[in-house]
């Protein structure tokens, strides 16, 4: 089950469960579309993988499987991705 993390790890922008701006890698690292396109150039700074749009969980399913409330933020900042 995807965690549906609540924010961009780069700029800390809110990414609610129904956001079409949330992008994830295969490890569920979560970033906003703006950071993926302009800062990270579609390469995850944590694992080196690419990104895909995060699926939107239907509202009824959120009742049984709520989104995460734990915010993740890159402490060292979020510069262009380097080889992982």
TrEMBL record:
Name of the molecule in the record: DUF1272 domain-containing protein
Q: Which InterPro entries match?
A: DUF1272 (IPR010696)
This protein's source sits in the domain of life called Bacteria
């Amino acid at each position: 089950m995807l965690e549906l993390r609540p924010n961009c790890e780069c700029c800390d922008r809110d990414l609610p469960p129904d956001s079409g701006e949330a992008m994830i890698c295969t490890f569920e690292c979560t970033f906003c579309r703006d950071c993926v396109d302009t800062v990270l150039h579609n390469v995850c700074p944590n694992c080196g993988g690419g990104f895909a749009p995060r699926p939107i969980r239907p509202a009824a399913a959120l009742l049984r499987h709520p989104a995460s409330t734990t915010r993740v933020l890159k402490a060292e900042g979020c510069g262009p991705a380097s080889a992982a």
